[in-house]
Structures are given as structure tokens and as C-alpha cells.
Amino acid sequence: MESETQPMGRRVAYWRQRRGMSQQVFADRIGKSKSWVDKIERGVRRLDKYSVITELAESLSVDAAQLLGREPRRRPGLGGCLDQVEVESIRQSLERYERLGRFLEAAPIDPTPIPELKGAVNYCWLAFEKGHYPVVARSLIQLLRDTPLAEDRPIGGTSADAAELMTQVYQIASTVLRKLGEAQLAWLAADRAISAANRGNDPLLAGIATTRVANALRSLGRYQAALDLNVQVAHGLISEAGGESSSPAAISVYGALLLQGAMAAALAGDSTTSDDLLDSASRAANILGRDANYYYTSFGPTNVMLHRAAAFVELGEGGDALAVHETIPPAALGDLVAERRAHHYLDMTRACVQVGDIEKAGRYLVTADRNAPAEIRCRPLAVDLIDQILHRTKGEPAQDVRRLAEEVGALN
């Protein structure tokens, strides 16, 4: 986010770009010329009238204090990540049906060539893995519009190619929305991902889409349904793919399904089933023989250990979770994508809270923030943990914990 030390014009440009507006579109919205906007953003022209600043802020759907460089204190964790305007834009994208344009009297839109779409989807995945969720949001809003049109009128590929890209877009949307606490929207996006995957030619994409549906069901409290779905699809997929002689990609997707099933079982309080599924995932990881990232699963021996620790957290066994963490090679953990590392340290923060080690909980939380700040700044779960750490700390919290609390607006 733009800070108080940066010129106001830079902050105007930041929020204009974040809202997906060109200088011309923004100029039209506020009744100014494009040249006026350009001069403001470059600092050639000063913004010295508060009435003009408030008008710009209203058009950008932000508080005037944000343009003045005085970021308002904010709760819960959407501040510093996706804001409600961006979440609403994704919601509207999910609710739009461009493919019915001929019935809705919508103006025809030229489809984006499939090779170009593929590059945009890969870019969105990479942004997600780095935890750059505002970048993900901007990409999703465009891709949720472009991929349905490409499936109807494919250029440079087939309709099946476009459907396979579409399922990935819906999967990213589902995962991000779930992290933000938007469980119903996450379920809608995941359900769309399943439908799109079935229109493609890659059965493994349907397998990965299943994990998004199951995770959304978990967020809705439907633990048994999530468990059953993951396990059934995992066994069907690996049988069809050839069992232990399956391709590394198929083994990765199979393993990812087992891991998510284990998490659903843990949330349901079924430790025996959770252990069994984790053991099966471990055998699959050993067959794979290394940490890989087929279909953006991050599946491998290290990720199995991360899920084993996370399952203990969901079962309320924080001490066991921390014991598993101690056995994870630091180098292997460091090789995982930033989002996965931060997610793990967030789980270990919860484990520390469970065993009453609040000082260590603060250290793990700060480590999670250093790996992927949006995992902390975005997620209501993380902001709740900051609250718990502050309230249970004897005396003053550590300086870096206090700074993080201030930045997410957790200090009164």
C-alpha cells in the first residue's frame, strides 16, 4: 500500500490501477481530462483542495484518509489485501453470464486468444503462490469474464482448452475467497470449477477441482461431505490412472485429495481416519520421491508433514503438531511456495496458542507474515490469532508483534 511518505499522486495512481481503471476512464468518472489525471499522478499538479480529494476518494471507493497517506485502522483482515470493492467485483464476475449475451442484448466482446489466456492464468497462479492477493483479484476479475467467451468462440485452441483454463480460474477464485471467509462464494466458484473441468479433456483437473469443492464444504462445516468426496474421487482417479504405476502428476493429484480428506476427518474429530489418509498420502509421496508442484499441488513428502501437523492442530493436539514441525527439514520447508510456508506457520501459531506458548506463537505469526504478508493481513483467522496473542501476553508484546498488530488495526 502507498505510504504517507509517497506523493499523493502516486496514491491516486495506485488506487486507480487497483480498481482496474485507465486514466481516461477515471477522468470521465470525475469529470476531468485525461491530461489533468496524468499531471496529478506525476505530481506536476498539486491536490490542495480537500473537496477535490474527497471527490477522488469517492470515485475510487476509498477513504479520503487513504489518499492523504493516513491509512485508517481497519478490521477484520481484509485491510491491506482485497477490500470489499474487489470481493464484490469477483462476486459480480461469478454472477455474470457473458455466454448468454445474445439473449441479454449485451454488446459482443471479442474473445481473447487461448495462448494469451494461458499466460494470464499461469501469471495468476504464480501471484497466488507468492501470496500477492490484490494482484490475484485483479487478474481474476478479468479472467472470469474472458474464459467463458473463449470457450464459446475459441481462437488459437479448442473449446476444451478454454474449459481447462476456466476450471483453473474458478479454482484460484475459490481458494482465495475461502481464505477471506467468503465460504458461500468459494463453494459457488468451486462448483463452477467442477463443471468446467468436465468439459475439458484432462481428468486430473477434475480431481484438483474436487479438492476446492471439498475445502469449501469444510468452510461451511460440512466435514463428512468433504471427507467422502475427497476419498471417493481419490480412489476413482488412481484406479483409472493405473495405481502405483501412475504418472507423477496423477500421484500428486491423488495425494492432494488424500491430504484434504485427512483435514476434513480431523475437523470432524475422526483422528483414526485422518491418520489413515495421511499414511496413504505419505506412501504416495514416497512413490513420487520428491517435493513437486504438479497442478500447483505442492505435493510431496514435505507437504504431507505440513498436513500431518495441521491435522493435529484441528484435533486440538498442539503439542503433537509442534513435534511434527520440529522434524521438518528447514531447507525443504524453504523450498515450498511462499503461500504454503506462511499457511504452515499460521497453523503452528495456532498450535502454540493451544499449548499456551504465547511468546513462540508471536514469533511464528511474524514468520508467517514475512513469508507471505497477505496470509496474515487478509485472513480473519490470522487477525483473531493476533487478538488472542495480545490478550494473553503478559506485559508488553514483542516489538514485531506489536507492529504487526498495529498494521492490521488490532490495537485499540
Automatic annotation (TrEMBL):
The HTH cro/C1-type domain is annotated at 12-67
List the InterPro entries. Cro/C1-type_HTH, Lambda_DNA-bd_dom_sf, TPR-like_helical_dom_sf
The record's CDD domains line, in alphabetical order, gives: HTH_XRE (cd00093)
Protein name in the entry: Helix-turn-helix domain-containing protein
Source organism of the structure: Glycomyces mayteni
